[in-house]
Structure formats: structure tokens, C-alpha cells
Specification:
alpha/beta; D-Maltodextrin-Binding Protein, domain 2; nine-stranded mixed β-sheet; two-stranded antiparallel ribbon; 11 helices; globular; disordered N terminus
């Protein structure tokens, strides 16, 4: 199952004839996509403080978002130097546990929350949890640069990461995915994150359809280490974000409606590559009533032009302006525009 894309920027390129024209068309398309991204950013509202904000908050959660959360904290404090933001527990699962016990926490999650999880938070100390999408992270299936596999279907993707079962096939060897020759009998070696990671939770929920995951060959601390691990393991494979690519790995095209779509920025921005997860901040809206505007201010900042630029610098993608306005209306009530 693939997560629905939240950002679609339509770009079109005319048909090309021959390799030179194709290269020119690709360059033109890339320029069009970058221009569209610039226009999108320009259409976002810059952050404007509503007034002085003071207070203290703990920011916990996804290690995928760790550097981005740090950048947001530092930049936000330039507007509000009296604010103190401290670091809490690492990992999406740990952050959800923390905010359930201490509703003053701001929890970062690198996967969607289920209704059951939101209900679970409400049953404890977090009485009015809301999850706000703050950026997008397109994912790719990474293999070693020497791996000959041409493409992957969603069904094959599930077969790699889902544990063996009686009712569905499990891909344990590269030949199970159609790779021929000397590679056919070689094992598929999964590189992954720990069980507390939102990346692992996303793979279980959206790729393996909630089933148990296949055993990993190696577990890593960060997504950067995951792709680095695949680059040093000839038979390695992993799911990770576009921003974690390196010269020792390559992204495998995803087959959709009979066409192999490469995992590229241009294809994502044009809406052709839909395999993307939302990055989320969770707060207890009840806590906003007594925090002097701190949590609302943080959310307004990360959804502003300033905050979305930080997301781009961290290797992620910004949100559509209309979607941002809808979320802001849900946080603060209908806005005057």
C-alpha cells in the first residue's frame, strides 16, 4: 500500500527525438521543476510573530527529523529568544509514549499516525492530540550500485519486507524478483532502522500492510547509516529518503500502471512518483491554552516560508500552500487572509 502524495506540482515537457534532444528535455524538465518549487516557496507566507513568546517545551521523536527539528528550534529562537526548547527521547515510538505521559511534549513522527494511536494518546494524559504534517519525505528502494535489478513493483516491494507467511510469497533471493544470472541465488540482505524508528513503523504499516517484517541483516542508528550500509553490502537493500542517496547506491524505479518511474526529484515534483511519507509534529491542543502561544507559534513557524525552506535544506520537500492554510485553520481557527 502506498501513501497518498500530498504535494503535486504539474510540469510538462514536449516529446524528444534522439539522445541529445532527450538530454535537453530532461534538463528543461529539471529546470521547470526547480522553477515550480521556487514559485511554491514564494507563495508561502513568511513567519511573522504575533507578539512576544516565552516558555519551555521538549521536542522529542523521529531521528529522521532530528537535524530539521534542531534547525527549526534555532531559527525560531531568533524570533523568540526567551523560548527554551530542549531535546527529549529519540524515535517516533518513544516520542508517542512520552507525549502520552507528558502532554507538554512536542513529538515528531516520520510516519502517519493511526486512529488507534490517537485514541491511545487520548486515553492517557494527552487529551486532545493533533497531528500536523510539516514536510514530505519521498522514499526510494536503494540497492548496491552494482545490483542489476531494473525495477520493482509494489507487490515485490511488499514481498521483500514482509516476513514469510503461508498466504503470500516472501522474496528471499534476488532471483525471486526476476534478477537473472549469478545474482539469482544471492540472498536479499535488508538494512533497516530499529523498532522504535518511524521509518520501520512506516514500512510495517504502509509497505507490509501491517504484517510482521522480515528479519534484517543489519540495523542502523540513522537513515544515513542505512544507505551507507547498503553501499558496502553487495546484496543489500533498504528503503530510505531521497536525501540519503550516495554514490555507492542507486534508487530502483517503481513500476506503476505498467511504467517504471525513476525515484528522482523531478518525477516526485511532477506527481509521477507517489511513494512518499509525511513528516509530522504532534501536540496536545489542550496544552496550547496555557503555554502563552508557544506551540501555536512553533507550528506557524514550521508551516511558514521560513520553516519550509529549512525543510528543503534538510533534504525534504515543502507542502502545498493550500494544504498549509487548511492546517493552520485547524490549529488556530479560520485565518483572515
Amino acid at each position: 500500500m502506498l501513501c497518498r502524495i500530498l504535494l503535486v506540482i504539474v510540469g510538462t515537457v514536449g516529446l524528444a527525438n534522439g539522445p541529445i534532444d532527450q538530454a535537453r528535455a530532461q534538463d528543461a524538465e529539471k529546470n521547470d521543476q526547480h522553477l515550480a518549487l521556487m514559485h511554491l516557496i514564494e507563495s508561502l507566507e513568511p513567519y511573522r510573530p504575533n507578539g512576544e513568546i516565552r516558555g519551555t517545551a521538549i521536542m522529542s521523536g523521529s531521528t529522521t527529523m532530528q537535524s530539521l527539528a534542531r534547525s527549526w528550534s534555532e531559527r525560531f529562537r531568533q524570533f523568540h529568544p526567551e523560548v527554551v526548547l530542549t531535546k527529549g527521547k529519540d524515535g517516533t515510538e518513544n516520542a508517542l509514549q512520552e507525549i502520552s505521559e507528558t502532554p507538554g511534549v512536542i513529538a515528531g513522527a516520520s510516519r502517519p499516525l493511526t486512529e488507534a494511536e490517537l485514541a491511545g494518546l487520548k486515553s492517557k494524559n494527552c487529551k486532545e492530540p493533533i497531528s500536523v504534517i510539516v514536510a514530505l519525505d519521498p522514499l526510494a528502494l536503494y540497492v548496491h550500485i552494482d545490483n542489476p535489478i531494473n525495477s520493482i513493483t509494489p507487490e515485490q516491494l511488499e514481498a521483500i519486507f514482509r516476513a514469510p507467511s503461508a498466504d503470500k510469497p516472501h522474496a528471499a533471493k534476488w532471483g525471486d524478483l526476476g534478477v537473472k544470472g549469478a545474482w539469482a541465488d544471492q540472498p536479499i540482505r535488508i538494512h533497516s532502522r530499529s523498532d522504535v524508528s518511524g521509518t520501520t513503523g512506516f514500512i510495517k504499516q504502509w509497505v507490509a500492510a501491517g504484517s510482521e517484517l522480515a528479519k534484517s541483516a543489519q540495523v542502523h542508528e540513522t537513515n544515513h547509516d542505512v544507505t551507507k550500509g547498503v553501499g558496502s553490502d553487495k546484496y543489500g537493500v533498504a528503503l530510505s529518503g531521497f536525501g540519503e542517496a550516495n554514490p555507492t547506491v542507486r534508487g530502483v524505479p517503481l513500476v506503476l500502471n505498467g511504467a517504471a518511474i525513476e525515484a528522482t526529484e523531478a518525477n516526485f515534483l511532477a506527481g509521477r512518483y507517489p511513494f512518499v511519507r509525511p513528516l509530522i509534529l504532534i501536540i496536545d491542543k489542550e496544552a496550547t491554552k496555557t503555554d502563552g502561544g508557544l506551540r501555536e507559534g512553533i507550528l506557524r513557524y514550521v508551516l511558514s516560508r521560513d520553516g519550509q525552506l529549512e525543510a528543503i535544506r534538510a533534504g525534504f520537500f515543502p507542502l502545498d500552500p493550500a494544504f498549509i492554510r487548511k492546517q493552520l485553520d485547524g490549529i488556530s481557527g479560520p485565518q483572515v487572509r
